[in-house]
């Protein structure tokens, strides 16, 4: 689940680790690529055979994850339209949504005029 994945990254950065190894899922890989594009992690590498894939993350980055707020949970899903998307922490954070066009940032969703399930914000 992506919630555990994000908390692992946050904890690895807080303890000063350079690399992190975790099981790879499609959702986690997409989220890792979004975090990499936005400067929260340095690199993402997937290794292993299809049944046992692992993701190796270089968590040293200019921006560290200081906080995470989860909106949608397995029991409660929160959906928003593209006009309702707000910036996280005054523009210093990142909002991530799951849309019909895939998982993307709030900024991308606004540009493509597509809403979806609000997953989380990081700052």
TrEMBL record:
GO biological process: translation
Pfam family, one: Ribosomal_S8
Designated name of the protein: Small ribosomal subunit protein uS8
InterPro entries in the record: Ribosomal_uS8, Ribosomal_uS8_CS, Ribosomal_uS8_sf
GO molecular function: structural constituent of ribosome
Entry annotated with the keyword Ribonucleoprotein: yes
UniProt KW keywords: Ribonucleoprotein, Ribosomal protein
Gene3D superfamilies: 3.30.1370.30, 3.30.1490.10
Family statement: Belongs to the universal ribosomal protein uS8 family.
Keyword Ribonucleoprotein found: yes
GO cellular component term of the entry, any: ribosome
């Amino acid at each position: 689940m992506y919630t555990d994945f994000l908390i692992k990254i946050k904890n690895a950065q807080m303890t000063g680790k350079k690399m992190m190894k975790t099981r790879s899922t499609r959702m986690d890989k997409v989220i890792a690529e979004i975090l990499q594009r936005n400067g929260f992690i340095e690199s993402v590498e997937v290794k292993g055979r299809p049944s046992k894939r692992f993701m190796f993350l270089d968590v040293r980055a200019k921006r560290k994850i200081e906080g995470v707020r989860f909106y949608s949970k397995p029991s409660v899903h929160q959906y928003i339209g593209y006009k309702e998307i707000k910036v996280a922490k005054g523009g210093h954070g990142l909002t991530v949504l799951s849309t019909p066009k895939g998982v993307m940032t709030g900024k991308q969703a606004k540009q493509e005029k597509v809403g979806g399930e609000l997953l989380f914000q990081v700052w």
